[in-house]
Design a protein that fits this description.
single chain; 267 residues; alpha/beta; 18% strand; elongated
Length: 267
């Protein structure tokens, strides 16, 4: 028996101490972001607003993996595309250049052995990728795009218009959570959630459907931090207080820190 029982738990410390942050990312991406929040003293509250499932045709992805060396450029449209679409570690061709729409996806690619990933310098999205000067001259290049089913076609269509031979492969599909959100609504009602993070319009829609009328009213009372203008527009249309931040985890955290500081100094 331990002769020295643990003492009372110390209260959390850090610039986000005492702040409950709802994290709505898919489960596999939520963990790393939650750890960063916890390191700053926040209490992460996970409610994955999107469930990631295997693609309808996994054989198509296997065929792409078997012939990666015939492509010149590869695009991964999200961290999910990186985690579910990249080949096994060690099978990435040295001459295949990889592109990601932001640092989060690039980090996920590095985690599966794909290095030297190009990311935009203007905005962390397809528009930012297409603004890279090197992608003006893609005529005759063979391009593969790893994406989720039903993804936007802007990137593929623009690269094809510039003369590239473009293929896309679905490496995952998205679905709404099967359960309800009663636990999250209880947390909101008890005042234990102070901020919300949303990283997709689809996730915002799923969340608002799941929480019901009472939950929607409670969510409208707290700020919703979002990393892209398109998501902010949708979140505002749903009646929430969208706060636009820079892209990636760093941008969301910067927005939370700025808000928390202003909140503290005004009390």
């Amino acid at each position: 028996m331990n002769p020295h029982p643990p003492g009372p738990r110390e209260p959390p410390r850090g610039p986000l101490a005492g702040i409950g942050v709802v994290v709505t990312r898919p489960a596999r991406q939520a963990g790393a972001f939650a750890q960063k929040l916890a390191a700053l003293g926040a209490t992460p509250i996970a409610w994955p607003a999107i469930v990631i499932l295997p693609p309808d045709d996994p054989a198509a992805l296997a065929r792409v993996h078997a012939s990666l060396d015939r492509y010149d450029l590869a695009f991964f449209i999200s961290a999910n595309a990186a985690e579910y679409g990249a080949p096994p570690v060690g099978r990435w061709p040295a001459g295949l250049r990889a592109y990601a729409p932001g640092p989060g996806t690039a980090e996920a690619l590095a985690g599966v052995g794909v290095s030297d990933v190009r990311v935009p310098t203007t905005s962390f999205d397809s528009d930012g990728l297409l603004a890279l000067p090197e992608l003006d001259g893609v005529r005759g290049k063979r391009v593969i795009i790893f994406r989720g089913s039903g993804g936007r076609e802007q990137l593929a269509e623009t690269l094809a218009h510039r003369g590239a031979a473009v293929e896309s492969v679905d490496c995952y599909r998205r679905a709404a959570p099967a359960g309800d959100a009663r636990g999250l609504v209880d947390v909101l009602r008890e005042g234990r959630a102070h901020a919300l993070t949303l990283t997709s319009s689809e996730g915002a829609d799923n969340l608002m459907r799941a929480v019901g009328d009472d939950g929607r009213a409670l969510l409208a009372r707290i700020p919703a931090f979002v990393p892209h203008p398109r998501i902010a527009e949708r979140v505002r249309a749903l009646g929430l207080d969208a706060r636009l931040t820079p892209g990636g985890d760093a941008g969301l955290i910067a927005g939370l820190l700025e808000w928390a500081h202003a909140r503290t100094t005004s009390e």
